[in-house]
């Protein structure tokens, strides 16, 4: 939880009543210049804060969170210290959302699908195949549709969204079955995110979906509790799933947006220049994280392939078959999410 100590400087001497108009004008110019200038390190209060996330430290998401903390420390001359807790150290994704709400954690990175348990309209981000590509996903998450969702979520939950990182498009991995068409998923014990929409997505393919926290997935795959799972390439590599799975299919069935969240009660008590610092730095690290993730995905995939993992790249016809198989999920969630919201995402350029 944030701790804060504010210090106040004594007021300077008053200007003599007989000061000339020239001095008044000069003083006004100086004041205007100061108000427009960025805050100096000595202007920041001393604060210590918590930032939690579920990602392994080698992942660009974890590196982005640490970069945010490092930049804040640098720009405030160490006055604002943000302690980053990676890899589920202080709780799972759901735990972190709850911790944000009660003020135990100040910042968190959490997938949209986990936050949707607290604010259901976010299920829009995981509706299968709703995003054409990364550019479309960014246009939605960063543009009017996303901003309207974040504002409504803030009002209803007290959770503020500072940025949207990403872990990329999700893939399907399995122990033994090479997945090339929907029928290949029939009967597979398959780990999914603990969200009804994700369960429905893989039920539509005939799999046997099993909700499980990401921290439990490696052991579940290793011990055969589940035979497969879906995650973006970066997660497959960072969490070591490639060492206990033989096959990966680049299905790209969902885009995994990762929300950079903040406790709004904490936020409300911050000086305006600190809010600006946090907002600007979050956006800066968002841009870095997206570029870094897209850069390393290709390297990760090459490494996995070189280590013997079978990589299946779907043809347009095969992708269309998966889209067709998942259409019942759209039918089920059209009213729950809202037909108007769905259409606004589809129409976003």
TrEMBL record:
It is found in: Periplasm. Its main location: periplasm. Residues 1-41 form the signal peptide. CDD domains: PBP2_TRAP_Siap_TeaA_like. Keywords: Periplasm, Signal, Transport. Belongs to the bacterial solute-binding protein 7 family. NCBIfam families: dctP, TRAP_S1. This is TRAP transporter substrate-binding protein. The lineage of its organism: Bacteria, Pseudomonadati, Pseudomonadota, Alphaproteobacteria, Rhodobacterales.
